[in-house]
Amino acid sequence: MAKIPVGILGATGMVGQQYIALLANHPWFEVKYTAASPRSAGKKYKDAVAGRWNASGGDYQKEVGELIVGDANDLSQAAAASKAGDCAFVFSALEMGKDETRALEEAYAAAGIPVISNASAHRWTADVPVLIAEVNPDHADIIPAQRKKRGWDRGFIAVKPNCSIQSYMTPVYALVKAGYPVERLIVTTLQAVSGAGYPGVPSLDMIDNIVPYIGGEEEKSEQEPLKILGSICDGAFENAALPKISAHCNRVPVTDGHTACVSLEFGSKKPSIDEIKKIWASFKSLPQELDLPMAPKQPIIIREENDRPQPRKDRDADKAMAVVVGRIRPCNVFDIRFTALSHNTVRGAAGGGILNAELLKHKGYI
Ligand code: NAP
To answer: Which residues line ligand 1 (CB under 6 A)?
Structure first.
């Protein structure tokens, strides 16, 4: 099968680089177009990232290094690449103002170029799905209504949620799906510096330190899960009412891997710790059934040691796409508590975006 040519918007940033690294040997997709800010536009990709290549997923391919970076704001460049057969859809990893990002992503979709985005700009748009492929793959099926409403034929916008919620949403969803609705959830996140992009948080703020504030992150952590657990109603998303979530988000001096310490309260039906472990260990979803290339074989991995998960030891589990959980124990205030970890720039960003693209291709939207 000929590979599908893809473009990366924000290709020079932390997430964009991770896309390039993870797509280097992808069986379905190949990077043929890159774009970033006017600062990088016009340079060869290898020159635009010289001195700031940070992808944990490996190096860029020689051919990608030779691509001339486009200006992501200049739609005509992507349209020309699309016409030339070099850009069937784009992954968006742009870091710019919300309004600008929203308008730009809509312009790409309107031009017939589907957008699979990491940016937060469209997470609250009523007809845009926020996908975690194992949790709500059916939300992709809002795309025909999105296209119809906006008059788009080929284009669409699908996004990923915030990287901080990836660590615990799949475990929580697995319990909900098994018949144990979660009513209240308190989470404290310990988020890696790569989550702030490059160059990110100044080293003098981070070394020997923890910063107990990440702008907008607690609101995202408290609200996005409700859209993900919600349903489609008349071409728009209706949020789930529960769980009620309280989040504390902290930036910690770890390079990659977001950790979450979670306490859960169930409704009247409460699973035992043994049942929870069984549910998590056996959890599989559509990406595993379809054996999608980026899907982890086992989406939730349980570590029984008292001192796991740890970012350095566990973030790369199963292509850095698995969520690793441990310290599953009773909670003195709620019902249970646990610690969960996932790789923020892979599972929480580029890897999750690629998995979403694989799902969308399987569903026939690209
Ligand atoms: P980053 O390292 O700061 O990279 C930002 C990218 O956007 C660069 O390619 C940059 O190009 C480009 N850009 C900046 N201003 C632009 C402009 N005015 N016009 C066009 N392109 C512009 O950020 P990041 O961490 O990769 O994050 C990218 C997106 O993913 C953000 O929306 C972020 O919220 C989201 N996200 C990040 C993570 C994570 O773990 N880092 C996780 C989930 C989601 P130049 O290099 O030319 O400046």
So the answer is: 10-16, 36-37, 39-40, 72-73, 93-96, 118-120, 163, 194-195, 197-198, 344-345, 348-349
